Amino acid sequence: MDKHYLTPLFCPESIVVFAGQLEDPASQTPQARALHAALRAQRYTGTLRFLDIHTSGTLADLAQSRADLAIIALPPQDIAAALEIAGRMTCRAALVISSGISADQADALKKIARRAGVYLLGPNGLGLQRPLLQLNASAAGPLARAGSLALVSQSGALTSSILDWASNNAVGFSSVVSLGPNPSVDIAQVLDFLANDAQTQSIVVYLEGITNARCFMSALRSAANAKPVVVLKAGRKPAGNEAAQTHSGAIVGSDDVFDAALRRAGAVRVRSFVELFSAAKCLASRYRPVGKRLAIVTNGGGPGVLAADWVNEIFLQLGRLSPESASALKPLLPELASLVDLIDLSEDASPDHYKAAIDAAGKDRQIDGVLAIYSPKPGADPAEMAHALAEVKRSIGKPLLSCWMGDSSVAAARGILNDAAIPSFRTPEAAVGAFGNIASFYQNQLLLQQTPPPLSTLAKPDIEGARLVIENVLAERRTVLTEMESKTLLASFNIPVTKTILARGANEAMMIATQLGFPVALKIDSPDISHKSDVQGVILNVMNAASVRDNYNDMLQRVTRLLPEARINGVTVQNMAGHRRGREIYIGLVTDDPFGPVIAFGAGGTMIELINDRAMELPPLNQFLARRLIERARVAETLGEWRGASAVDREALEQVLLRVSEMVCELPQLREMDINPLIIDETGAVAVDARIVVHNAPQAASGHANQYNHLAILPYPARYEHVWPLRGGGEYTVRPIHPDDAHMLQELMHNLSPESRYFRFVSSLVELPPTMLARFTLIDYDREMALVAVFKERRAGPDGEMSEAERIVGVSRYITNPDRASCEFALVVADDFNGKGLGSRLMQSIMDVARDKGLAEMDGLVLANNPGMLKLMRSLGFAVKPFAEDPDFKLVTHAL
Predict the structure, then answer these.
(1) Domain boundaries, the chain
(2) What is residue 249's predicted lDDT score, i.e. its pLDDT?
């Protein structure tokens, strides 16, 4: 059970091939001919057999011949039969290499595979390559060179193109997977395998579309937490939406949402095929992100300035040497060298000068990466310069990129750089852009680490009151809330709103205005008018009762004339917001297919579509995410001291965003929302106008109740946090794990006895590798759960002072099996806490979570020589059975 369920597909020990008759190439499909050539070109390390579905023999004979993987490259009419035979041979996985299979045919193949218990990759893909296994099960061309980069592509043509490019650029692959449309094993499952694959250090994805946002985000977050992931997304849609009923719906397009999703998942998005190659070069060099300060070392001012300009253009920072580093480096460089901004070595630069400059930049703490630019000079050898870079690369731990400008004279030098795994680019802009991808990955990792709960620590909102408002609107068969109803919803979540009262006649409006106090604003109230300004349905700064009466009558006549079919409830009267130098902000919500609700932020007012200032984030938010969301919008530049106005209360703005996040999490009926404008100044924020669109809450695909099914990223499940008494005195907390627990989890591992480590990991592992630690602590809470037992103990610090510190003393976890009905568990308890009831409590708690998720069975493997664990399992009602695949283990199962 420690192996990934897709291991038979990607690491098969035995393969059976159905690709037509070997002696009759004319009867084979083009894919079959390409597959035969690919399999013969190198020696696969496992067992390989070719079978013909028309061969004589019985099913009983086939059942005796087993294989991990069946590769099928047959005409469409024969694929189903081959898949049936693969099932009879107890193949755990099948790969179909074909083209032109319709969606209906693909569904039929999926049903056969599901019935036979076979994981099916394809149809309509080019297959897969695993270079380290010498396995080329594809029609994508020659086997790629071995490396640490994985390629996952939904386009066969792009897969072939990237492999062709890689062969000339010294880029090697751990895996190449061509999915095609309508796959059975989808991109989320492939990413999940690659996240756990020790041979893969980084992942490049070409994506055209996804079907299940929750599964995709879960797998992508898991993969990006363990290793760098770069995504090229095709099919970017225009931002406009003619059916939108709010500003947010009109200006936010699906491509913007995809950007926000990738950023939150910790992955990096590139916009072009060229950028994808650049990212692949950097990832193949195993560079890890550290920051966005790039130092530029050059022997020519012009190329260096071009690179510096592009650094500013894509919001990186130019890395500058510290005064101490510059002073130490200056005597080692030519007399005309300059170290002010760029490290300009002048035209007299030699290989030694490059080495000294790059070494200094590599050791300087103010620099995160180095770009070496070389322009050909008479009498200088570009290859010698390249050798200098190859030598110095061994001694620096930061990203080192190169740009050897020119063409024929630097071809040999580029070959040297490729062999040394130094990413090489033809233009300064391309090299800077590639470093930008590394820096983006670093920034997005910070977003990935955030796991906010659905509700903040702010004052508790009136969730039931808000739900009643929505239920009443839906009961009246309406979807658009009036301004009064929208503001009621905002007020339920403690978002400040202007006092608003509906007047159904001119005299009533006069009385309300007089009681509220002048000046007032009048706004038409109609469920059929999305944008009041379009019909002159907003009048501001009305100063007396007579003006209220006249404007009321004029507004009703004007709106009735322009929109005779519109239902008009009356006119709302509200105080004018007293923020004289306030900034107009908009906060919105859109619902994307497939990512669900997305929060938008930007400049507000009547020209919102024209200004088109928007930044987006997937809920739930915490203060860190809210702050980053504000910083990404252009309007953020006006929130400080600006043109004589004081800086706004940013904390109040962040709190409004947190409140909106709470609304989105707790009210799945919300579809679109505009708070526009929200006026913010140094005294706080107030929502002046609001419009909300609702529909019935979406149903869970599983049918199991979960109030957060509408979210692509599940919030931190704080509801599973409980305090329990400790046998022998004291207490401990059982709660879901979060990313900040990595250090405590590693400490638990260090303190385990060798026997406990072996019982848990079936190895002598002393420390969790970084990738495994990341996988264990950042989880999506959807398909897996980990509960930690946290005990507070008093410790003496280095100075002898006593302080209270938290310590993880036990962990229970489960991972949902591919059938989505059962799960596999694991348990470990600190040696000094054995016998205190922790193991039993952790298991009961994790079983409760699994039941809450609708799972039907929990199972696990326990070493047969671990009597303590087996005794605990029996006491909890688990059935203990022999494990057929390995007699050293017992299989323990429990129906939930």
Answers:
(1) 7-283, 290-427, 718-895
(2) 53
